[in-house]
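Case study B.
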Amino acid sequence: QAIDDDCNQTGQLLAAMLDWPQGTFASRVELEDGAVRVEREVDGGLETLRLRLPAVLTADLRLNEPRYATLPNIMKAKKKPLEVVAAGELGVPASAPRLKVLQVQEPPPRAGGEKVESVESLLGKLRHAGRI
Amino acid sequence: AMAWRAAPRAAARLLLGRRGIASCIDPSTGLTEDQKEFQKVAFDFAAKEMAPYMAEWDEKEIFPVETMRKAAQLGFGGIYVKPDVGGSGLSRLDTSIIFEALSTGCTSTTAYMSIHNMCVWMIDTFGNEEQRRRFCPSLCSMEKFASYCLTEPGSGSDAASLLTSAQRKGDTYVLNGSKAFISGGGDTDVYVVMCRTGGPGPKGISCLVLEKGMPGLSFGKKEKKVGWNSQPTRAVIFEDCVVPVGNRLGAEGQGFSIAMQGLNGGRINIASCSLGAAHASVLLAQEHLTVRKQFGEPLANNQYLQFGLAEMATRLLAARLMVRNAARALQEGRDDAAVLCSMAKLFATDECFGICNQALQMHGGYGYLKDYAVQQFVRDIRVHQILEGTNEVMRMIVARNLLQG
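Model:
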C-alpha cells in the first residue's frame, strides 16, 4: 500500500492482469516446491495462504527488518552525487498522468442505531434489511 | 525482536520512548543532521540488540562477543580511529553521543566497548605505520578485542609509581610484574601495557602491545563484581614475558604521556556511559510514576515526586552539556581540554549515579528487584566514580588548575 495515495491497488491489478494468484500484505514468506506459503496481515489477525507459483506478493512492514545504517555509510551519504536528469533524456514519452481522480468523498456519516424490544423484533428487522 | 513485531505505532513509541523525544531531556537537541543519524543508529541498536539481553548478560556474566561484533560492523569498533585502518574517523563529540545512546541498552557492555575503542585509538595515534596496519584493522572489526593495562595492585591513583618492569634484552623487552582490575583481561586478544623501561617516575614509563598467547603472559581469577558483569575483570601477570621491541608504541619514556592523553578521551567516554544510564533511568522512573497508583491516584500526582523527576532531568541535562563541552574542547585541541574532561567526568559520574539511585527509590520495592532494569543501571555506573581516575583525583586536577594555573 503506497504511502502517497494509499490506493492498495497495484499488486492486485497486476495479479488480475497476469491471472496469477496474489498474497498481499505479506509478513512472512516461505518458498516450497513450486509454491509459496504466505502469512498475510489482515484486519482480523493473520491469514496463511499457499499459492502456486508464479504469484504476486506485496510486502507489509513486518516482512523484514531493515539493516542498520553503518557510520561510514551515513557519512558517505552526504557526499553521494545527486544527478538531475530531464524526463526527455530518458526516452519516456511525456504524457498526461494515466490515473484520473474521479471523486473524493468522506465515508457516509455513522447512522444512528436502533434499540429493539425482543429477539423476534431483532430477527424481523434484520430480515427486512436483507441482512439474513 | 518483539518490539519490532508489534504494531508499528507501538514499536515506534518504544524506540522513541528510549530517546525521550519531545521532552526537555531529548538528547538530540543541538546536534547536526549527521550526528542525529549516528545517534539514531546507536539508539536503535541499543533498544534491539542490547536492552533485551542486559539482565541476562549481568546475571550469567556473559561477555557478549557476537553482539559487540555486530556493533563493530556498524563502525562502533574504532569510532575515532582513522578510516585507513578500518576506523570510522568520527569526532570526540560524535563518539560521546554514540556511547551515551548505546549505554541505554547496556551500560556495562558499552563501557567495555569504550575501553576497547581507546586502545585502538592509542595504537592508531602513537603506533608507526607497521603497527597500525598490524593491529588496528582486526580491532576495529572486533575480530580481536583489546584491554588496557595501567593499574597495578600497588599503584592505582598514583599511576606513575607503577612497578611492572620491562628490561631491554637485544631486540626484545622482558616483562615482570602484574596489572590489576583489567577489563576484558583473559578473554581479550591485545593488551596495551604501561611498564617501566627507565628510571622511577613518569618519564621511565613506556607503552608495549602484548598479545594473548605470548609465553609468560597469564591471568588471575575472574573477579566477582557488583556490576560491569558483562565484562570479565582479571589480573594480568607477566613472568619473564618476552615482547619484541617492534611492539613498543612511541618512544621509550613516552608511555605516561600516551596514558594521560588516552585518559582524556576515556573520561569523556565513561561519563557518556553514565549519561546513558541516567537517561534510561529517568525514562523508567517517568513510566513508573505514571503507572503505579497509591492512595487512589498515580504517583505522578505527588508534587514531591514531580519535583524529584524535574531535578533529575535538570541534573541530567547539566551533566550532558558538561560532557559535550569537554568533548568539543578535546577535539579542537584546546589547552583547557584535559581539565574540562576531568570536570565533566567528575560531575557527570556523580550526578548520574544520584539520578539512577533516585530513580530506583521512586520504584519503591520493585526498584530493588532484578526483574527491573533500574537497579542494574545503579550497579553498573557506581564504578564510573572510581575508574578512569577516581573522582577524588578529578578534584586534584581541577584544584591544581585553579591554584597553580
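Confidence is low (pLDDT under 50) at residues 1-16 of chain B. The remaining cases will be described in the next quarterly update.
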